[in-house]
């Protein structure tokens, strides 16, 4: 048995770049930075920054493109994937990227000020967050609809923003 799972909390190095595959599904690419801090033998604080390339697909990619911005704090959960390519100098290289299946926007709205008014629930160790999961593969067909009683429709709400995807 093996496990390929990555959990990262970091800041975006650039705005997500969203493209669309021929089948119409979105693909968002961006990078995030994580920092590691320690004290050396002399007691001086040292910091090392690691950059991680992130890829999000489908609805998760669309949401990232709409709401994430450079400098924003984000939680990404997914798997690591390697890709071989030949550089301009003719040398074969390996690139690593994180294929995300869960994303949480962390921090304040100003950290990820991507337009749109979204409600951020309270809680978590990292301050306010909004969580998104990639859709799970369909395992079984949905159950047949149940018969419902005829009830009056609820009163309309005036402050609903139709542009918000959640």
UniProtKB/TrEMBL annotation:
Q: Give the multimer and partner information.
A: Homotetramer.
Q: Name one GO biological process term.
A: DNA recombination
Gene Ontology CC terms, in alphabetical order: nucleoid
- Domain of life, per lineage: Bacteria
* Species for this entry: Paralysiella testudinis
Q: Give a short account of what the protein does.
A: Plays an important role in DNA replication, recombination and repair. Binds to ssDNA and to an array of partner proteins to recruit them to their sites of action during DNA metabolism.
The UniProt keywords, alphabetically, are:
DNA damage, DNA recombination, DNA repair, DNA replication, DNA-binding
Q: Where is this region: Disordered?
A: 108-166
Gene3D superfamilies the record matches: Nucleic acid-binding proteins
Q: Which GO terms describe its molecular function?
A: single-stranded DNA binding
PANTHER family according to UniProt: SINGLE-STRANDED DNA-BINDING PROTEIN
Family matches, as Pfam families: SSB
Give the residue ranges of motif Important for interaction with partner proteins: 161-166
Protein name, per record: Single-stranded DNA-binding protein
Lineage here is: Bacteria, Pseudomonadati, Pseudomonadota, Betaproteobacteria, Neisseriales
